[in-house]
Design goal:
By secondary structure, the chain is mainly alpha-helical. It is about 75% helix and about 0% strand. The protein has a domain at about 25-85. It has 4 helices and no strands. α2 (about 25-30) packs across α4 (about 55-85) and α3 packs antiparallel against α4.
Length: about 100
């Protein structure tokens, strides 16, 4: 019961923090959390390979899928953000 309470409290706190972040900062926030999602992915892989039963394997597999989606989404979003700041051909400073 205590673990469910901690999970719900963490989910509520995370939602409240993210919902108050201005839209301009969502992309840098996502690219900064790629590191955390990488740790979650490694942890999920570790749990999956040391699981002792179908329930643990299922939960670990779900963790692998969700963490992978977060990592890939973060890299795609970061690349898209960086593309916005690249100068288009012919729009750079004179002499380039």
């Amino acid at each position: 019961m205590m673990l469910a309470f901690v999970f719900l409290l963490a989910a509520f706190t995370g939602y409240e923090i993210i919902s108050r972040v201005p839209a301009l900062l969502h992309t840098p926030l996502m690219s900064g959390t790629n590191f955390i999602h990488g740790i979650v992915l490694v942890g999920s892989l570790w749990v999956f390979f040391s699981a002792r039963g179908p329930w643990a394997e299922s939960v670990a597999w779900l963790g692998i899928v969700l963490a992978s989606a977060n990592v890939v989404g973060g890299f795609v979003t970061t690349e898209r953000m960086l593309r916005l700041f690249r100068a288009k051909r012919g729009e750079g400073p004179p002499g380039e």
